[in-house]
Every structure is written in C-alpha cells, then in structure tokens.
Amino acid sequence: MSIEIRKAGLLTLLVAGERTGFRQLGIGPSGAMDSFAMRVANFLVGNDASAAVLEMHPPLPEIIFQKATMISLTGTGFEAMVNEEQLPLWKPVVIGENACLQFKSKSSGRAYLAARGGWKAESWLSSQSTHLGVHAGGYFGRALKKGDVLETNNKEHLGHETKIFPWGISSVELDKVYSPQTLIRCVPGVEFNWLSDHGKKTLESASFTITGKSNRMGFRLVGEPISMMQQIELVSSPVDFGTVQRLPDGNLIILMADHQTTGGYPRIASVIKADLPKLAQLGPSDNITFMMIGLAEAERLFLSREKILAEIKAGCREQLNKYLAK
Amino acid sequence: MEQFFTITSLSECAVLVSFGNQIDSILNERVMDLHRLVNTNPFAGFIESVPAYASLAIFYDTRLVDQQKGNHLTAFDYVKSLLERWSEQQDFVAPPAPARIIDVPVLYDGEDLTYVADINQLSVQEVISLHTAGSYRVYMIGFLPGFAYMGSVDQRIASPRRQTHRTLVPPGSVGIAGLQTGIYPIASPGGWQLIGRTPKMVFDKSKDMPCFFQPGDCVRFYSIDEIEFSRCNEY
Predict the structure, then answer these.
(1) Prediction ipTM score
(2) Chain A partners of B13 at a C-beta cutoff of 8 Å?
(3) Subunit contact A262:B52, Cβ cutoff 8 A
(4) Which residue of A145, A242, B3, B23 has the fewest CB atoms within a 10 Å radius of its CB?
(5) Which among B16, B75, B149 has the least Cβ separation from residue A299?
(6) Binning pLDDT at 50, 70 and 90, where does residue B92 land?
(7) Cβ-Cβ contacts under 8 Å for A238 (sequence gap 6 or more)
(8) Which residues of chain B from 125 to 184 reach within 8 Å of chain A, CB to CB?
(9) Residue range(s) defining the domain that contains residue A211
(10) Which CATH class is domain B6-89?
(11) Domain boundary among A125, A149, A174
C-alpha cells in the first residue's frame, strides 16, 4: 500500500510516539502537536498509539492512493474529499485504488492521516517522529514534498473501492476535547510568583492573539503586556510542551511539540496537558484566554483524558476485530 | 536538616528541583548528583531527568505515579515527598565523578571577534589567549541538540548577546554570551558573539551517542591555523 504526494501542502510530516530519554542532550520529544488526534487516528485503524502518522498543516496536501488503503483522518478545521465526494472524519475508511484525497482547509487546524499498519518511517533515537532540526527520523528527516511516495506496513488485501466503516468518534466525545476552543486552562508556572498582582490579573482576564511567528516550536502571542514584580535574569532551566514563557517585552510564548529542552525566560504558567490538543488546533490570528486551575485538578483532567483514550483504543479494537473477522 | 532546594511543578508530568539561580559549579554538582541518583534509583513511573545550571527537571508518567501515591493528594505531592526523603538521607554533595578532559581545536576567525576585543578594550590576540587559557565546565546541554553550555570565561572577555540574532549560524561556530561559551552543534539561528570555529563535529546524528559533550566534562580550547583547520575538518 502506498501513496504519492501530488501537492505538498504547507508542512506535511511524519510524527510518531515521543522521543523520550534524550532531553538531557538537548533533544526534545518531538511527537504530534495534537497527540489526541494522532493517537485516535491510530486507534481507529487498529494501530498502537505510537505508530507514525502524517501531520498536515494548512494549506493541506493532495494525495494519490496507488493501492486501496485503510486510513483514518482526524483533527479539526478541514473537510476531506475523495474523488470530489466528502469523506467523514474520525472514522476508519478504505480509500480506493487510484483515488485522490483533497482537502478544504481553514487557516488554522491540523489534520492527521493514519494508515492501518502505520506509515513506514525511519527511526532515530527510538522514535519515528521527524526531528526537523537535525533532519532525522520520519521521512528522511524532512517534510514531504511533491512526488514523494510513502508506504504502509500493511499487507492485507482490502478490495479496490472506497468504503466507509460504520463506527467512529462522536461529536459529543470530540467536544469534550476541543471546546470551548479558545479557553486554555493552565497551572501556575515555576516563576508564576514573579508576576505582579496586575500581571496575574492580566494573564487571567485578557485575550491574547496567536501571531504569524508561530510554528511547531512555539506559539507567540500578542496582547496586553504581562507585568512582573521585578526583572530577574534566569539562568537556563528546563521547559516542557505547554510551558508559557514571558518574554522581556511582556509578551508570551507557549512552547509547543518541537520546543527547546531548556530556556531562560520566566515560566509563568503551564498549559494543562488535556488542553494542548485544542491549543494545537489553533493558529495565527486566533484569540485565546487563559484560565488558571489547581494542579490537583490538572492531574485529574490528565488522568481522565488518558482513560478516555484507553477506552477509545479498546472500543476500536473490538469493532475492528468484529468487522475484519467477517 | 536545612533544605537547600525548592520543588515546584513544571507541568502535571514533571517537577522542577531548583538549587538556586546562578552559574556556580557547586550548585551544578548538586544538580548532577541528584540527576545520577534518580537515574540509578528510578521510582516507578520515572521517565527522564534534565539537568540544567542550577535546576533539575524530573519527568514522570503521572498515571503510574498516581497509582502509588497513597495518602498524597497528587502525583506531584508524592514525587515531592520522595525527593525530600532522599534529601534527608543524603545531601547531594557526594564527590563529583571525575571529569573527562576534552581539548577542542579552534580557528579564531569569528565575525564578532573584533567586537569582543573592542568592547573589552583588548587586542584580538589577547581575547584568544584568554579564551584558550581557561578550562571550562560543561554545565548543561540545552537550546539545541548537543549544545553544551560551558563556563565561565574570564571576566575580561565576557560579552553581551548580539542585539539582533543571526538567522543562520553554521555548525562548529564557537561563541560567547555573558560569561558562557559554547559551540553550535547544528546550523541554527543564534545570538551569541562568534569568535571562531572548530573543525570537530560536536553532533553526529548517525552515532548511538550523537552528542560529543556531556554535562560535567572539562573543556579546553587551543588555537589552530587555517591549514590545521582544513586538515582536521570533519564537516
């Protein structure tokens, strides 16, 4: 089973399970911007959570399926068409031989394309996720270009025609993850108490706009400057996906999937893991507001999200086993 | 026992143990000591730890920690109490592991070499002499894959970061920022004052251990000419 990229799109790259254990060498975990959409895309086609999937940033690519391939598409902010017919998202489907997959995308949102068996990908330091900085992992360490051919690890014969499977993830389930989309919950960061009372108030009440200088490394925000009690120089210290840093001009940056492992700006907040998927689905010119919650609640939300994912995985396995046994 | 560190949450999947906010080899040795300790005695759910100048981040699988947290309210509280208990048993000031001594050749022809000399009212030759006279501790790896933060340079060659970042600094470039010195392991945007370049590859993705430097290493620089640079150029 293989596909050919007919139009590259803005940034189409292979992401997979995180590269853990190498932060101490300055090598971050990479992985998906929206790990919920990435993992669910895998579960829908019977893969493990960490199998390589295509992460696609708008404008989205155009893809030709050389053989019939079982896939799933997840994410937000786009519609998918196969040979000009609309394709449902968050559902397993078989795309027929020689079919062309096209998208209509909004300015923000990221799409994930998983194939049954996983896309063939290079592993680097125990992860198949592309590391764009050192050009390693994924598809020759780079984003896909026009003419590139990507293969799956699956050898099953799935017929020739496009087919839609009768189960998927409900919109009720998705709303729990993605709405309200612009309200981003945080826990206080390591240097939260360096903020002035006014700065803390601004952080919780003002609206911030994601700027065009945003990418897989970080989202830069503009808005009312956040004031500090005093400017203290911070020696470089570890950061994480979701760390909100305050820049010297008072604006904020949220570190995303390809973040550096350490940084020297005050870490005033940390976006909770459960809200990173919806944040990852936003982009330039989208507005967000922050809501501070306690660490106990953040942990509870994290655990309940992981539980939901485990249930989705089990549910998908059961459905697939039933269906493919027929 | 007096507690000489603070423990805060970095996220709901990591704690940050902070020993201070200075570039100081004694603080950094405590960081490395705790880093070694947690890696040799990992608690259930431990994923990885990240040493920095004066702080250590400890990443863990919140699901696994949650299962054993017992009476603690949160997974964070459990990890925190575990670390506090350790600190009662030992003080993180064990004798440091013997440092590897690494000699690094440098062709001192960096674009900012004259600037570094000028702001410090030195000649270019004096900057080179002072940079090669020191031996530097690798305090931490961060910013880029394999980027070793080393220090401290002689006060007389300390230099502020550039006002404007270069969009592309070639790999092997040797720079100064404040009292720190370092080598760019891969091409990257950067704001350090560039004083030279090394022909040695300090990052090689094809190796099992892709990074040349490790925290705790002792690094010395020596000056080479262009002929020597071309002879041992690994790029």
Answers:
(1) 0.96
(2) 240, 273, 302
(3) yes
(4) B3
(5) B75
(6) low
(7) A23, A261, A262, B10, B14, B16, B50, B52, B55, B56, B57, B142
(8) 140-147, 149
(9) 183-293
(10) alpha beta
(11) A174
